[in-house]
Specification:
This protein has 178 residues and is mainly α. The protein has one domain. It is 83% helix and 0% strand. It has 6 helices and no strands. The chain is elongated. The two termini are 27 Å apart. The mean pLDDT is 91.
Length: 178
């Protein structure tokens, strides 16, 4: 029981870190660095902030996946017997992995922006007129990705809440009765 509580807590906290960190980065970090007076500093400072966050996010992903496996193992009997639990677990796993892939791709695009920071920019995700095609492309992709990431993370949190609701006694009984 205590092990499952720990795994569920880690699972929820790491999803929260992914969601909150991505929103804070998109709104706070990218928004603040757009205010830098020097256009070259706008992308450089944003890149520095995201680089500092990357190890935390990576650790959170790892802990999230490991704790998710522990939860699935603990609930293997329920998954086999209660209608909808396995299906929801598969969907949540797909959304988590897709979101992790999108986050990784955003990191790769961010590395391109960092390499080209000397060109300057209007903001972390807004190219300035005359920017190279490589910088413009990476920034335009990041502009979309910075909002897609919290959508994935938020969806994972909502699906986790759905799992919790499925554990209410009335829902467990209804799922077993089918």
């Amino acid at each position: 029981m205590a092990g499952n509580l720990v795994a569920r807590s880690i699972h929820d906290l790491t999803a929260g870190a992914w969601f909150g960190g991505s929103l804070m980065g998109a709104i706070g970090l990218n928004g603040a660095t757009a205010e830098a007076k020097d256009p070259a500093e706008r992308t450089r400072l944003s890149s520095l902030g995201w680089k500092k966050w990357a190890p935390v996010q990576t650790a959170a992903f790892g802990a999230h996946l490991i704790s998710g496996l522990a939860i699935m193992w603990e609930n293997r009997g329920r998954m086999a017997k209660q209608d909808g639990v396995t299906r929801l677990s598969v969907i949540k796993s797909i959304v988590t992995l897709a979101g992790a892939g999108v986050s990784l791709y955003a990191g790769l695009q961010g590395a391109k922006v960092d390499e080209l920071a000397g060109e300057g920019a209007k903001g972390a995700t807004e190219p300035k007129p005359g920017a190279s095609e490589e910088l413009r492309s990476a920034q335009q992709q990041l502009k979309v990705l910075q909002w897609a990431i919290p959508v994935f993370a938020g969806t994972v949190i909502v699906l986790g809440a759905k799992h919790g609701e499925m554990q209410r006694p009335k829902n467990v009984f209804a799922g077993l009765a089918r």
